Amino acid sequence: MSSGIAWGAAYNPRVADDLAFRALADPTRRLLLDLLFDREGRTLSDLHSEVSGMTRFGVMKHLRILEAAGLVVTRRVGREKLHYLNPVPVQLIHDRWVSKYTRRNASALADLKTELERGEAMSASPRQVYQVFIRATPEQVWDAITKPEFTSRYFYGSRVETTAEVGSPIRHRAPHSDELWGDDVVVESEPPKRLVHTWRALYDPDLAAEPRSRVTWEIEPMPGGVCRLTVIHDELENSPRTAEGVAGGWMFVISGLKTLLETGEPLGLRSLGPAS
β-pairing, 169-173 with 194-199? Predict the structure, then answer.
């Protein structure tokens, strides 16, 4: 996994914003983000083939700037280095710089097709990767993922029920009722570092009809009392509606988790349903 935002003595959200703004200011870098928005998990060679008039090294330099700003996350699969779009920094910019100047309720908090002037609907991707830095301990982040008193304040009001042990259920119940929004199974558990569980949304009949996919939470301590949280939603090849539906939803969940742990206050809940 790439290291993402450059580190000094500690993570500074204003520095992170500056890096993101500067990265988005360049048209070639916006083009690379557009390409990853259309299809994620692409190699350097693949991306270079779609950027005319630029050397492979030039494309590599632009990708490094996007990685440093946290807008691109990389993962190695065998000998290949694959690049994924990470829309969370754009959403956090919206949280800090846009939403307070507008009266409308920011639901998806500036989805990327608005921020990057996109007009096309998102196509399903077999893997979605999101990353954010949170000023909290690994134990605090783990508790925020696995305890209902936390999830009810950032996960669309849903209450998680789980022991987080391998083979145990992990359920999400709707706010103020026993209705199940998700009834899944913990596949891997290494507190407070890694949690893997299945995923099938029950709040929408079309999504519930699709095969289960998988969600991985990776928590890594970083310098300065900060954790890097990476959320990977994959095994979506046979669940295109789920892939499309959760894309904006994960951005809201992750930024809400960060806001709750850092400020003690939740983001305003969306009036729409989860991941809608």
Answer: unpaired
